[in-house]
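Lecture 7 notes: from sequence to structure.

We start with a single chain of 199 residues. Read the sequence below before looking at the structure.
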Amino acid sequence: MPPRQRLTPADRRAQLLAVGARLFAARPYEEVLMEDIAAQAGVSRALLYRHFPGKRELFAAIYQQAADQLLAKSRFDAAGSLVEQLIEGMDAHLDYFIANRNTILAGNRVLAGDPVIQTIIANELDVIRTRLLSVLPLTDATAREAVSQVLKSWLVFVRVLVVDWLADETCTRTELRDVCVGSVLGAIRPLLAAGPAPQ
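Now the structure, written as tokens:
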């Protein structure tokens, strides 16, 4: 066990999240024990449980932190190329998902029925959809609603496809990314304002 350090509550929480994130990324959810996290962090189990009442709560906090970090990397700009921005956003997500395969599989399969995890996922997808809508050339509220529905379905499609791919890689990472980007471009093109195709 590493030597015990005195940290502020915020620093201790950040340390526990970092240790937990590392262990959940390295092992399947069922194999990560709170005792292991406490030992790796150099704290007592009692101190760990003061910050997080249980493994699900710790995992949810880690998942929320990851969602926040991914959203920070997924910004869209109406002045930029939509295709380039979609590729950049997909790359950021795929990089994280591949590096944290066990975490993503736990959040989307092992804890698929957990309302806290599902709320985190739903909120992240809603933010991405809202950001995409803000940069697309939409003529009116009707077009916006139609595109919004398409994007909502596309984001679920991408989530399911990527989670399945993490469990069983049936194509290359680049092919996966290009399928995701190509599918949304094809789906929304008929609903966009007349003019040049998204680039």
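Residues 81 and 153 are 22 Å apart (CA to CA). Keep this in mind for problem set 3.
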